[in-house]
Structures are given as structure tokens and as C-alpha cells.
Amino acid sequence: MNVRDPFGLHRNTAFDILRTTATQAAAGIRDKAIEAGATAIERSKQAVEDMSFTVPKNVPSFNNPQRLAEDYLWHHSSGGPTPRRGGGGGGGGGQHQGILGGVQDKVGEFLSDATGNSKRTLPMYKDKPYAYPPSQRLRPIYRRKRVLGFLLLFVLGVLYWTGAFEKHKERVTVPLKNLSWLKKDEKAKTKADWLKRRDRVVEAFELSWDAYERYAWGYDEFHPESKRGRQMAAKGMGWIIVDSLDTMILMNLTSRLTHAREWVSKTLTYDQDQDVNTFETTIRMMGGLLSAHYLSNEYPELAPLKDDDPGAAGEDLYLEKAKDLADRLLSAFESPSGIPYASVNLGQYKGIPAHDNMGASSTAEAATLQLEFKYLAKLTGEKLFWDKVEKVMEVLDGNNESEGLVPIFVNANDGKFHGKNIRLGSRGDSYYEYLIKQYLQTNKKEKVYEDMWYESLAAVRKHLVTYTEPSGFTIIGERESGLEGTLTPKMDHLVCFMPGTIALAATGGLTEKEARKLKTWTKRDDEDMKLARELMHTCWGMYKYMATGLAAEITYFNVANPPLTSTSPHKTPPAVFDPSEDAAWRKDFEVHPQDVHNLQRPETVESLFYMWRITGDVKYREWGWEMFKSFMNYTAVEDGGGFTSLTNANVIPPVSRDNMESFWLAETLKYMYLLFSPDDLLPLDKIVLNTEAHPLPRFDMGQLFSTGWKRKPRDAHGNAIKSEAAAPRHAFHHLSSTSPPAFHMDRDVELNNILTAKEDSITQGSVYNMMQEPSLFDGERRRRPGPRAARSAVGRWVDSFRRDPERRVTMPAAGAFAKPPSMSSQHHQLQQQQQQQGEPLMREHSRASTSGASSANGHYYDLHGGIMATANTALARELKGRHLQMIAIGGSIGTGLFVTSGKALATGGPASLLIAYCFVGVMLYCTVHALGELAVAFPVSGSFSAFSTRFLDPSWGFAMGWNYALQWLVVLPLEIIAASITIEYWNSSIPRAVFVTIFLLAIISINLFGVKGYGEAEFIFAIIKVTAVIGFILLGIVINIGGTQDEGYIGGKYWHDPGPFQNGFKGMCSVFVTAAFAFTGTELIGLAAAETANPRKSLPTAIKQVFWRITLFYVVALTLVGLLVSSENPKLLGKSSADDDAATAGAVNGNNKGDHSSSGDSSASPFVIAIESAGIAVLPSVMNSVILIAVISVGNSAVFGSSRTLAALADLGQAPRVLSYVDRRGRPLVAIVFASSLGFLAYLADLPQQADVLSWLVAISALSSIFTWGSICLAHIRFRRAWAARGRSLESLAFRSQPGVLGSWVGLGLNALVLVTQFWVGAWPVGYGDKTPAGNARSFFLQYMAVPILLIMWLGHKAWFRTKVVRVRDMDLDTGRRDFNLTVLVAQEHEEKAMWPRWKKIYRFFC
């Protein structure tokens, strides 16, 4: 220790002293801080206990770096001292210097409040003040962000409201990737694929509909760009939905139709206090509902729905809605004059005059209600509907307007015309349209409307038609001041309905080529067709003139002063429109700025559709396609919004209107679809289209309805005169020097003497065509019971047998034979003589016939005419799926299974029996599926011959048709004889002729009930037969295992003795032939397809199930037969006598044509033998009863098959014309009578020579079924080749054969094998060595004579007409198809099938 300096003071520096002092001070402060912290903790605990909430588990750490940073920022923003400030506080705080002073200031301030008093506690985290920085608090209000934001939004809103941004939105673009096909060059194609083009139309509809469904479902208006809807009534009128129903049906859009129908059923109501336009509501809503009702019943295969099937609860939904709407619209007719008011309040049942035009109604609107109300009257029998609209026409014509041209306004109070403005555009157009359509709707019975039409058309020529300068286009102008005023050279787009309507009136809906052959064709008709072509050309020019290719609403023309008359010489306009801007033809056209809008109107494409159907000129289709592309290019809306009308269609890009008209879906796209469709879809001679393009059927007025008024006679100037004697009734035809001198009242395309007999019938197409008329009579007639009513019922029954020319098996004027265009007029006279004598008709070459053949002798076969003839069957489509299945079973399970199988067992043994039937089952599996694919795609009449004609060779089709008809014609007497022989099982003392009479009358009676009666009978017969077979199978199992008292266990005893085979390989071949013919009749489902309500649904199921049922029945039942009956049993067919020549034909012809003396002997049935051997007394009689029913069933099928085939042949010109007679119940009556008459050959049953006669008759068509099946397989192979050559996908087929083309090759090969084995066993039959050469020759010709007969028919027809095998590139793959837009339909079905459980998928694949 240093004594001098014991404390070391002299050794420490000043810094050390300062450090020591600071350390001691810090330690003191630390102690105070610890003490203050402890106190704060205690107070915090007390505060927590007093709190009403729970302290969070994750309490922030006070010494965490993040906490320190936050405290620093908080203290800094609050204006507290910072380390760099060093204090800055008041009260001497600034005197603290150095590190120690800073620490003391900070700690003191931290633990003190604003007043300087110590708080003795630390602040909690939640107590932080959230003060704004001083800079923000000092900002003025106009600089704050929130204020500036609100101000900016306000400015943007004002700009949007004033439309500052609309100039960009109005330019329509095409953002749709699936419209890339528009850019493809189609000029390189030599032939247009119109079905693909039609699919494009369907896509456009789907896009439009889906956009409406997505953005405006249930609304009456749709604005596709703004993607919103608007209602016309509080609850909606269904303006777009109802107007589009029939379009969806035609396009087969099932899922969309289902949604629409659900809306109509659950949401649509007309019980609303709403004013609606009478005209628009009638044509769109009422017309749409009636059309949907008609199509859903007439074409049930299109967009099929279970809800509208017959018997379903919603069967008449559309009709009921239309009736409710019509009842409300009737109040519009309650005016003093009978002219309907312009509007009506639906909820109040009150008519309302127009709010403008001095309360006058538009003439067009008042006279465009007739088609709809008349059809509704026909459906409901309520005559009031009919009388109201007829009264309107009487009042309008009673104004006696000069020359048939009427002003565009009419006063509903007095019925007088208002003003003098005459035009065929707005407010005047459909008045003239409905004149000719009313005449056509009632099958040309209301002649008054034909008179009015031709009177008006003559006046149009005289006063409104003129020609433009310098090119000479034909236009229809306006007379705004009446006929005495000047002509205004202006055409609304609406006027473009006239070309098609003029052509429709001239031909009556027939093609021009067919109409020209009628005696009623006159020079006036030639001039009308010329005018129609010229006006069509002008309307197309209205489209070509516009920049977008879409016509303006109104077009003006440059004409001479004064305008030329219709008889003045003029230039011919250019056939092709030069696209250059300075083309000369453009000088003829002028569009004013206020008229450049395009509203998606349909009038031009409507006329294009009529002109194509009537003239066959493909340019009208091409014009329609070009128009459609313009719509796609310039009216498509972004983001899948559909399509919009245009405000300006004369600039590119166009200015949009943001509105989709309902007639875009109801008319424009529908006419496009029909324009690109085959001609057999909605044939024009069967229907009329209302002014909203809703198809309605033609019908006869019947006894209940009539025109009810007559026109006043007219003078030479078209003015009404007081006396009929003062002038001829039709003097108005001299108004124009170009008019013909006389008017023909017999313009009907049908014979007048036939038409006069049609009183109560209704044309095919109406769902009431099978209804009885008395339920439609008025109250006065219903109140008269007794003899009058009885006579009426008898009269109706007699009247049902009268001919209905509107109902044929095929198209009325479609003969399969034609003459080339160069044939002379003398030969044309010969045609008429041949037609009258029932000889094959020869007519001009059809426009679409590319595969016809002309021989050197001038005979010509029109292949396309034949295809068209079979495409449109007019017989009632009343067969359901259950009928089809049972028809096939009933036509196959007969004596071939019950009786003739015994001969097969005796000839080949049980093993041969089983092998042969299984082998043939495979052949039928392939054949029936090939038939199913063809029949579903083409459910045409004359099924088998039609397929052979279309895909193989017309001559082969001719031979097949006749051979198949002969087969069934001979079957009938044979089956009746077999039935009479079966009766002998119980009583042989009664002459067979008695039972022949009974069975013949029964079969004829069944067929006279029509196709539905036939179907129901076969359904019952088949159930009995199927039940019997199933019962035998169960009984056979019991007998085999020893379940009877007399028999022990049998097992496979007869397979050992006498053995599984008899007569070696030849015996098995004989069984193979017998088995093939035992399946005859399965193909009847193809023949019945043309009379099936929904072949696409019914046929596939029937085809698959029928095959399995028949195969299982045959295989299982015959397996048991082989186990229970010995092949050497003397009772079997062929074992009872040494000479079984008489049984040969029966064995060959299986179930349908079994020999009358043996195959019909039920005692020879192995089924009966098996039961008798078991000692069961009653069941043999039961089985014989089943055999009897089976025989009658096959005879019933014989009449059906032969009558339908003969009727189709007759309408094709391949059989006497009288056989085409179809009565008012849709029965081919003469064909049925003729087929039934051959049943009288059954009276040969009691003659000794009957065996020889009938055996040779059987031989004529003994191989018909084999040739039919082989032809089906070959036709399917050729069809698939043509389908692939056109680049079409198999997915577009409604039903595809499961074994495919390979299966058809297998089926064709097996059918050929049957013919080979038939030849072998026919030339060298089993036991031929024991027979004489004459006997062997007789046996051969009985089995093979059909081959030379068939060859003679085929080669004779080919030599006469020089036909050739149809080439793949010439095959018609479209005509006759009844399913459309299958791509979408199949996709929907695949989606539905994907939801099925696995067991159902497997089941539906096979069944």
C-alpha cells in the first residue's frame, strides 16, 4: 500500500474521476428505475383485475427492438426531444450537458406527464396517441387527397353522362375466335357445304341466345353491349323467349328449349294490367306459341321433350297459353266496326285506340291477325276466333277501294280508311302478304283471298312498279297522295317480302318446275315469276350498296321524270354488282343519312329462302351466305354479347345501336337456317309462315268454318258495282295490258273434284288430324242428339275412307322417273296418258339430280327425284318405342321358332341347331345395327329399296322393293292357312274355309285401324308370344331336371343318343339356312321408322333390345328343345313322311312362309312335343293357342309390310298409281285392300292342289330376306364411305352401328354364305340320292328360283333406264334426314351419359 497516497487520488485522471462519478449516478438512477418499475407492475396487476376484458396472451415486449423503434418514432412525431436536440425543454433543462445530462433529461421526461409531474407508471401500448404530423394538419381543405378524389369522380361522372366515352364503345369489333372462318377464302371451293354453313347459323343463334340468357333472362328487350335487359310489362311478356321457341325446335336445341319452356310454364302470365300492341302480340306471342305447339307435335324428334309428349301433363302448354292470350286479345275486336283497336289491355280485357294518327289502326296490323286466329279456331273448335278475323276482311274489302290498293290507316270506329297514303312498306306490307297466305292456309278453299291478291298485284304493276336510271332496276314505289298523286321512288326494307310472296303465290308452294307442268299455269304466272326475280335482284342491290353489306332501313332510287310504267321499255340491270365505288349501278341507289340504320330485318333473306326453294337457283343461297357473313362481321358484340342492330351501317366500322331485336332470333336466323337446309324441312306446299316466320300447317276448313262473306262484283277498273250482271267478276285482270285476259278460278295444284270431297280432314302437320269433328261443333249442333248425330257419326266414318291428296306416303308430285329437258312436247302428252293409266311417270330432270341416267331410248331415271319422293312421308307418325320393339319381335317369333325349328332339329341335330342359330344371331347383330344407323339417319318410306336406290343402284332398289313386297304378299295366305290348320288340333271336322274367313277378316280389320291400331295389336301379340317363350323356358328347365312325375332326369340324353349331329356337315348347313330365314321380320323396324314419332330415340333402343331378346329367346329356347326332344322323334316336321318336298319351302322360309301343310301343323312343333312327352295335359293346347296367335301376328305384319312398300312404290311411279291412295286417317287404303285380297288365296287350303300352288308362290321371293339383309349391309358400307369422303364426323350421326363398318362386312359375308349354302343344299339336299332327278330339280327351284327372278327385275330395269352404280361423290347424304344440329344434341347427351352410374352405362351400351 502506498502510504503517501493511500486512496490513489493522485494517480487518477480527471476523466477517470468523471467516469466514476457518472457510474455512481447511473447506479442510483438504475435503482430508482427498478423501484419505479416494480411499482408500475403492481399497479398494472391491480388494473388488470379491475378490467372487464382479458389481457391478450401475446403481450408486446417492452425491450423488443421493434418496440424501441416504434417508441422512437412516436416520440419524434410528438415533438419530444431527440438525441440530436439534446433536451430543448423549459425550466433549465437546457443546462444539462454531456452524456449524463442527456440521460437524466430523457428518463425524467419519460416518467413525467405533460405538466412535469411524475406518473410513476409506464404507458401501455394501447395508450399511444395517433397524432397526425403537423404538416398534414396545416394543409388547406382543397389540398387534401380525399377531397381531390371526390372531385375527380364527379368530373368523370359528368363526362360519362354526357357521352364523352361513347365514341369508342360504338365501334363494333369481332372479338370472337370462333368466327375465324369468316376470313377463309371460299372461292377455292368448287362446291359449298350447305350443312356446315347451316351449322354456322346455329352457332350465331346459340351465341345470341346464350348472351340473352346470361345477361337478360326473362326480359322483353336485350341490349347486348350494355348487357342488360328491360321489361315491357311488370312481369314480362316473354317477348324474346316465346318468339324464339320454334326456332330452337327447328335447330334441335333441346337444352335451351327446356329452359325456355320451363319459363313459359312457371313464369309467363298474361294476367297483367298492361297495354300491348294487338298486332305485334298476335304475330310474335300467339304465333310463336301456336307454331311451337305445331312443331312439337308434328316433329317430335326435333328437340324432344318428355313434358310435351302425348299424355304428359304439359302436352298442350303452348296451346293453353295461346288460348289464354287470344281470349284477352279478342277485346281488341270490340269496336263498332269490328276492326281491331291498335292496342289492348290484357288484364282488363279492353281494347284501346291508337294514341296517334287520330286513333286509326294500321291497315297491315288489322289484316295480319288472320292466320293465327284461324289456326287457333281449328285447334280449339271455337268459331268466334274465326268469325272475328273474317269480319275484319269483310269490312276492309267493303270500302270498295279502287283496284285493290288500300291506304295504310283504317278507323276502328267506322271501318273506313283514313288518308290516301298507299305503300307496301310499313303499315301496309303484311295486308297483301296475308291475302295469298289465307288462301293457301285453308288449302285454297277461300277463293276470295286469291281474287283480292291478284287484283292487288295487278294494281301494283300498274301504279307502283317502275324502273331506275341508268341501270334499270325494278322497284315498287309509294303513292303518298293516293293513286292520283306522284310516285315516290322509295322502298322500305319491309317491301322486300314481295319477291318471295309473289313466287309463292304463282306456284302455290311447289317448285317452279313442278308448277309449270300444271294445266293451271298461265302467262300471268310467267310474268309474276319474272317480276319476283327482278325485285329480288333490286333487294340484293340494297345490301350491296351499303359499306357493311347490310341494307339500310329505307332506300331511295333515281327514276325518270315522269317514272316509267311497268310496260315501258327499260334497260336490263347488271347481273353482277361491281364492288368499285364508281360503278354505274350505284347511281341508281341513294340512302339518306337518317335512313342508314339496319335493324337486323328478315324480309330479304325471307324472299331468298322462297326464291331458292321455288326456283332452285343456287345464287339465292350464295347471296344469303354473303349476307350472313356481313351480319357476323359487323354486328357481333364483344365478350360474347351476341349481335346488335346498327345505327349506321354505311361506315366501317359501323355504329352500333345496342339492341337485339326479337325477330333476329325468330325470323332472320330462322330463314338463314331454312335457306341452308334440305328442301324437305318444312315443305312449302304443306305449311304457311306467318309474318313473324312462325310455321303453321295448312288445313281444310271442315263443316264448322267458312269464309262467311262474299266480295261485291267489280267493274273493269276494279270498282265495286251494284249488280253482278253489270260486269264479270274477274274483270280486274284487265287493269294492266300485261295481265292475262282471263283469270282461272281452278288454280289449285290438286284436282278440284278431289278437293271438294275434303270436308272434315286437316292436313298432315296438325295434331288434330286424327280428331273427330263433332267435338268441335258449336253449341247448336251439339244440342241435336239422336238420328242426326248418328248419321253424322256414320257419315264421318264413311268420309274417313275418302282420299286426302295432302296425305301421301311420299311427296305428291315426286315420281322417280323423269325425262331429260330435251324431250318433246308430244312426249309430255304421253306422260300425262301414262299417269292416267297408272304407268311409270316420266317428268323433267330435277334441278339437283346429278346422278340420273338417261338411256338411248329416251327413258330417264331421276335419282334425286326418287330420293325426294321417299324423304317426306305424310303418313301419321304414331308408333312409339314399345311398338317398334314388339313389331320386330312379333314379326320374328312365329312358326319359324315354334314349328319349323322342328325340321331343323330333325335335319341337323341339337348341336347343329344351337350352332346355326348362334351363328345367324351374329349375322343379324351386324345387319340390324347397320339398318339402325341408316334408318335413324334417314327414316324414309320404302326403307330398304330407298337405301339401295340411294347408295347402291336405282335398278337394284327397284328390284329390292318389288321382291320385298312380293315376299309379304305371299306370306299372308300361307299364314292364314297355317292358322286354319292349327285349329285342327282341337277340331278337324270344320272346313278350313270357315277359319280362313275369320282370320282374314281379323287381319284386315286390324290394319284398317291405321298404323296405331296395327302397333297396338302387335304389342299385345308379342307380349303373349314372349310370355309363352319365357314360360316354356322355365317349364323346360323343370322337365329336364326331372321335375315331372312321369319323366325322370333327362339332362343331355338326346345329345348322346341319337347324337348332337345329324346328316353330317350338310345337315348343319341345312339348319344354317333354316335359321337364317327364322329371323325374317326383324327388319320391319326399319320399314316402320317412317311412321315413328321419334325415330332418333325409339329406333336405337328397339334395335339393340330386339336383337338381344330374339337371340336369347331363340338360343335359350332351342337349347332346351334340343335337350327335351329327340332329333329322331317321328312327330317332327319332315319325319312324318318319306317325301318332304312339300315341307321344303316351309323350311326355307322359316317363320313367315312356313309350308301350309307342315310348318303350320302345330302338332309338329317341338315345343308341343316336349310338353306332351312330359305328360302335361293342358299346356299343349295353351302352346297351340300361342302358335295360332303367332301365325295371325305374322299375317298382320305381312299386310303392314306389303301395303307400305306398295304405296311407296306407287308414289315413286314404280307401281300402279291407284296404290298411292291415302285416306283421311293416313292409311294407304288401296294398298291395304290389295295386299289383303291376296289373302283369298288361303281358300286353296281345302283343294288338293293347294300345296303345289302355294309352294311355287313362296319360291318367287324365297330369298328376299337374304338379299334385303345383304343390301342393308352393303348400303351401310357405301354410306360410311361417302360420309367419310365428305369429311363428316361420325359424332354427327344420331346413332352409330356398334360393330361399325367391319360388322357390315361380316354381315354381308355371312349373308353371302347363306346364299352359297342355300344353293348347295338346294341342288344336293339331304337324302338327294333317295329322290328322283325330277324331285331334286323341283326342290332346287323351290329354294332358289327367287335368284333368277330378282336378276331379271334388276337387269330389266337397268336395260330400260341405263342406270349406273351410284358413285360416292354423287350420294345424297342430307335429303330425308329428320334430325338437325346433331353436334350440339349429341354433346348434350354425352354430358348426360357422363353422369350415369357404371351399371347403367354398360346396360345402355348393349340395350
TrEMBL record:
Cofactor(s) recorded in Swiss-Prot or TrEMBL: Ca(2+)
GO biological process, one term: ERAD pathway
Transmembrane feature ranges: 147-165, 884-902, 914-941, 961-981, 993-1013, 1019-1039, 1106-1125, 1228-1245, 1257-1279, 1300-1321, 1341-1361
Sorted UniProt keywords: Amino-acid transport, Calcium, Cell membrane, Disulfide bond, Glycosidase, Hydrolase, Membrane, Metal-binding, Transmembrane, Transmembrane helix, Transport
Membrane topology per record: Multi-pass membrane protein
Cystine pairings recorded for this chain: C496-C539
Gene3D superfamilies named among the record's database cross-references: 1.50.10.10, Amino acid/polyamine transporter I (1.20.1740.10)
InterPro entries in alphabetical order: 6hp_glycosidase-like_sf, AA-permease/SLC12A_dom, Amino_acid_permease_CS, Amino_acid_permease_fungi, APC_YAT, Glyco_hydro_47, Seven-hairpin_glycosidases
Top-level class of the enzyme under EC nomenclature: hydrolase
EC number: 3.2.1.-
Organism domain of life: Eukaryota
A GO molecular-function descriptor: mannosyl-oligosaccharide 1,2-alpha-mannosidase activity
Gly residues bias locations: 85-99
Region (Disordered): 73-99, 817-854
Compartment(s): Cell membrane
Domain Amino acid permease/ SLC12A: 883-1366
Catalytic residues as annotated in Swiss-Prot or TrEMBL: E280 (proton donor), D429, E553 (proton donor), E603
Biased segments, Low complexity type: 826-837
Binding site for Ca(2+): T691
GO-annotated cellular components: plasma membrane
Matching PANTHER family: AMINO ACID PERMEASE, GENERAL AMINO-ACID PERMEASE GAP1
Protein family (similarity comment): Belongs to the glycosyl hydrolase 47 family.
Protein name: alpha-1,2-Mannosidase
Source organism per UniProt: Thyridium curvatum
